[in-house]
Amino acid sequence: MSRTNNSFGAFKQFKIGSKEFKIYSLTLLAKQVRGKIDRFPFSIKILLESILRNESGIEITQQDVMNLANWNPKNVQKVELPFMPARVVLQDFTGLPAVVDLAALRSAAVRLGGDPQKVNPQIPVDLVVDHSVQVDRFGSASALAFNAEKEFERNRERYEFLKWATHTFKNFLAVPPATGIVHQVNLEFLGKVVQQKQIENGERILFPDTLVGTDSHTPMINGLGILGWGVGGIEAEATMLGQPYYMVTPEVIGFKLTGELSADATATDLVLTVTEILRKKGVVGKFVEFYGAGLSSLTLPDRATISNMSPEYGATVGYFPVDAETLNYLRNTGRSEELVKIVEFYCKEQGLFRTDNTPDPEFIDTVELELSDVVPSIAGPKRPQDRVALDSVKKYWHETLQAPTEKRGFGVKDQDKDKDKIVALSVRDEAFPLRHGSVVISAITSCTNTSNPSVMIGAGLLARNAVQAGLKTKPWVKTSLAPGSKVVTEYLRVSGLTPYLDALGFHLVGYGCTTCIGNSGPLPEHISKAINENKLVSVAVLSGNRNFEGRINPDVQASFLMSPPLVVAFALTGSIDIDLYNEPLGYDPNGQPVYLKDIWPSQEEINKMVDECVKSEMFQQQYSNIFDGNETWNEVAVPTGEVYQWDPKSTYIQEPPFFKNITAKIPELKDILGAKVLAWMPNSTTTDHISPAGAISPTSPAGKYLISIGIQPKDFNSYGSRRGNHEVMMRGTLANIRIKNKLIPGVEGGFTIYQPRGEQMAIWDAAEKYMADKTSLIILAGKEYGSGSSRDWAAKGVFLQGVKTVIAETYERIHRSNLVGMGVLPLQFKPGQSVESLGLTGFETFDIVGIHDEMKPGAEVTVKATSKNKVIEFKADCRLDTPVEVDYYRNGGILNAVLRKNLIG
């Protein structure tokens, strides 16, 4: 790191102990600009420090500093900010394609006469392999070893490629499989709160730890006082290559917390309540910052639980400032005392340290929650913001079961003869019933909760009490425990709770994002068959953060999010159709009813066990060999060479076509003429709907492709594991089993109408025909298009299907950016307009006029839709929001722009 400019005279030197450090002082800056920096939200102060420190007169200018130093909550100026994060985190599903693209950039640089060694991350990048393990075996002491073995068997090609990357790219490290979930590893180990670097003259600079990540749940680190958020893999790649992350000046909503949680409420109940409140408020694309005395009653894992679900409530970040609890957590997780002292000194010096006496920052708007009002809750069955109080679950389930599908129900009416159908099954001579509402998956999974010792210990204590009361898990429930780090396993072992979780079938199945991302593994065959043959609406319960349609398991239509203790409770009942306050979980050996209140652990007991069993030494021990502690990983072969040798026979890693035909000269922008609609997507279409995810069906275009090259269905693995092979991914885009294309009402799955022949077919098959005809394609969409995970393939896939533009009512932040990053033009209907209000059918021919090289951010285009009967003409807003986004679009995407700018010529 070289010294950047000090145009504002903000360079300041001081000592911590015997060491000298320098900072870019916000206090000194405030004197220069006469701004009210001391009352800025903490998150804005951190952004301001980054821009001040990186001001170079080139990518970041004095004007950029002034723009943010004059931040005014009453009138936030929508100017572009160039943000240089300190580091990048990746997970293997979204991170591997980014590394594949870097390898492809090296190949492209060579073809264009450039230097491949210029393609290197310019800032530290950590990739955590956490999305590849699947729950194949469960309810068994051998589950962990078996699932880990299957993981390596399925993913060896991917792991060989990642090992090549760790040996070839500078500033790139990979955390091996079976270690933990990226966000929990980030929280417990990677996050430093304050970073330090040595510059050219030997001086050491302190600055806030900031990051972007390729997982939408990157904001979990906000709970530790670290500013970071999820970006598309495409944007992350540009940031890795030294480009600023360009953003519009954020609006910051303050969320005031007061009081304390009641004894029966958990952090999960709190975050589901927060998610509901903020979705109703509308915070998409905004920063949310928590403040108020209530923060002091929350542990840091509680805060991280809330920050983790920022994507679910739509915010870019859910930030908690550094305070005394932050320092306690750093100590408790084995960080050095030197780091703790640096964090405390630096944050207090920079006005980044919160106490209960700190004046409230000034926000553009605020919301408030009294913590004692939070009640036990679950959320579902199709969206995380659809919270329902636990005492209303039974009534809510019956209403949802009967509600029409367009209102997120299942359309099973009271008068339907199958409403109360019972399917009789038996296993090992034990007979049992399946019906609508049967819980067939019960999973303690996802960093949202497994990073929180309170709810994990709570689940273990509830399991202990249940076993001691003589209760058992229902035989049709697939149970699993997938912690976010090995520390969880250790403190559950030390607390003596592991045997009780095992007794109920919650054996350790792996360390990674399993059920929450669709790696739940197959249901037992007889269960799957009964569900599908009888069209039962089966249920999954999980301690995760996502429950979108088709995500958890192809046999499950309804999924509910909840705390780990409630996951255990519903495994005991085997049904969501129960009032846990008034109906028993089961019966003891004497035939006496056992209620939830009888086995629910007290908060005092949970706190006592956490204090006794969760020790800093556990974190130090488990993270001491994090990068080389997996012997199977260490034995993976490492390919050699600065440029990756692409294997044309590989079914996992292929050189993507994005840069194969790139020219040094930027092509001219032109209007889109004669386009057809590939798909018309309803409101709340998520990236889970768009992007390939989960199992690959043998009858899908991707499955047929794999079979055509000799891969048997048993060896398909998942879409996620094949994200490095564009041939699979472009065929799996828009192929979700629950997707609804409004061009063909009443049809579920990835189908469309190939309009020249009026023929229904798979979306990929139609796209292939359109591309052969050289017909440009359009996607029409409603509100919240692209909500959910930051899946780069949701943009890459439609690009490779020939989609030139999307016209939507509104977009989720990351997906809109990803579309721009791939050179797909995001257009937005004018407020109050939609496909329906304009009278469009989706079967018109579209001309989009006004696309040219002199386009400005927020330009307006004219759309003319022509059918046999009429012409509909309307204006649409171009969602290229910044000058840099216009430049990216002109280049055909972010990486094309980076390649032309830095790597060739």
Q: What do you see in this structure?
A:
This protein has 905 residues and is an alpha/beta fold. The chain folds into 4 domains: 11-83, no CATH class; 87-373, Aconitase, domain 3; 389-614, Aconitase, domain 3, CATH 3.30.499.10; 658-903, Aconitase, domain 4. The protein has 31 helices and 34 strands. The strands form 11 sheets. A 7-stranded mixed β-barrel has the order 26-29-30-31-34-33-32. Strands 6-5-4-9-10 form a 5-stranded parallel β-sheet, sandwiched between helices. The protein has a 4-stranded parallel β-sheet with strand order 14-13-12-15, with helices on both faces. α26 packs across α28. It is globular and about 80 Å long. The model has no long low-confidence stretch (mean pLDDT 92).
Spatial strand arrangement across the major sheet: 26-29-30-31-34-33-32
Low-confidence stretches: none
What is the overall silhouette?
globular
CATH architecture of the largest domain: 2-Layer Sandwich
State the major sheet: 7 strands, mixed, barrel
CATH class of the largest domain, anyone?
A: Alpha Beta
Would you tell me the structural class of the helices and strands? alpha/beta
Estimated share of beta-strand residues = 15-25%
Oligomeric state, counting identical vs distinct chains: single chain
Rounded to the nearest angstrom, the radius of gyration is: 27 Å
How many separate domains make up the residues?
Answer: 4
